[in-house]
Amino acid sequence: MLVFPNAKLNLGLYVTGQRPDGFRNLESVFVPLPWCDALEVVPAPKDQLTLTGLPIPGDPATNLCRRAYALLAADFELPPVHLHLHKAVPIGAGLGGGSADAAFALRALSELFALPLTLDQLESYARRLGSDCAFFIRNQPVLAYEKGDVFQAIDLPLAGTACKVIYPGLHISTAEAYARVTAQPPRHDLRQSLARPMETWRETVSNDFEEALTPLYPVLGELKQALYAAGAAYASLSGSGSAVYGLFPGREAAPAVPVAAGHLVWDGRL
Ligand SMILES: C[C@](O)(CO)[C@H](O)COP(=O)(O)OP(=O)(O)OC[C@H]1O[C@@H](n2ccc(N)nc2=O)[C@H](O)[C@@H]1O
Ligand SMILES: Nc1ncnc2c1ncn2[C@@H]1O[C@H](COP(=O)(O)OP(=O)(O)OP(=O)(O)O)[C@@H](O)[C@H]1O
Questions:
Q1: d(Cα 117, Cα 72) in Å, to the nearest integer?
Q2: Is 8 a catalytic residue?
């Protein structure tokens, strides 16, 4: 079975409080971004993981695809599988690429082996693999709370909006990024702010990580300014960075933006 785990963007992100489990509570809108990896899951004589595309730091034994398999194999009798992941979504980008691989692996294994799992149950497995993972089970725009894994539906007329994402070749570790942010109550009501015209979002829809990380990594501010200069209606850091995106509603495609060597650019539509 071949699946294409997609990335996500965060529209606004407030880090709102410290949790007893050491994590933070947050408030953010997650939307699927069709920048995709490819993941193939095939029954095989023995378990195997092969990797191509962008290099993934760390021991392949701890790859989130393998961890997804191990989680289900602890509860169900699964035959060995060959997992092949072709990595295209940059890592440490705030795009949730690794989390998507994990969630899509859970969904693919469940479907391939006809496991009796509902979407709610798959979300529960996904939560155990990472805060961002549960979103990718249903993969629909949501307002996310708590660790970013408790959802409310949100209706956003964004489908088809031209979008440009720029990854400045900077791996920002999620844990490090959280350590730099001080939790505070949300400055605005995200649902209300996002219901207003997109041109007003820059006044109210902010990402706490952007404020904390831009002084450290000025390139993040430069990319945001470049996207606004190119005519973006809204531009922001995604998640804990380092990818910065711009939205260009009403355009066929996002315009060209000059970027440095080593930056990765994704152009497409939401
Ligand atoms: C920044 C976001 O991408 C926004 O969508 C997510 O909150 C990150 O989610 P993620 O990459 O799935 O993060 P996890 O793998 O669960 O956690 C990585 C580390 O980030 C910190 N972390 C993560 C999520 C959260 N709500 N509070 C935290 O403090 C913790 O230090 C944790 O050890
Ligand atoms: N399939 C995978 N894809 C990417 N990273 C993976 C994967 N499996 C395990 N990892 C580990 O997760 C780390 C990346 O996590 P990190 O949260 O920093 O970035 P991310 O996947 O881009 O998501 P985000 O920044 O949105 O949280 C990598 O350093 C790598 O060791």
A1: 10
A2: yes
Residue with tokens 């995200």: 190
Q: How far apart are CA 85 and CA 170, in angstroms?
A: 22
Give nearest CA residue, ligand 2 atom 30: 57
pLDDT in tens, 21-75: 999 999 999 999 999 999 999 999 999 999 999 999 999 999 999 999 999 999 9
Say how many Å lie between the CA of residue 212 and the centre of ligand 1. 16
**d(C-alpha 27, C-alpha 13), whole Å:** 6
Using the structure block, give the residue that is written with the tokens 């155990």.
128
What are the φ and ψ backbone dihedral angles of 217, each rounded to 5 degrees? -125, 80
How many Å lie between the centroid of ligand 1 and the Cα of residue 8?
A: 14
**CB-CB contact of 96 with 104 (8 Å):** no
| Predicted complex ipTM | 0.95
- Provide the whole-model pTM: 0.97
Model confidence pLDDT, tens digit, residues 126-136? 999 999 999 99
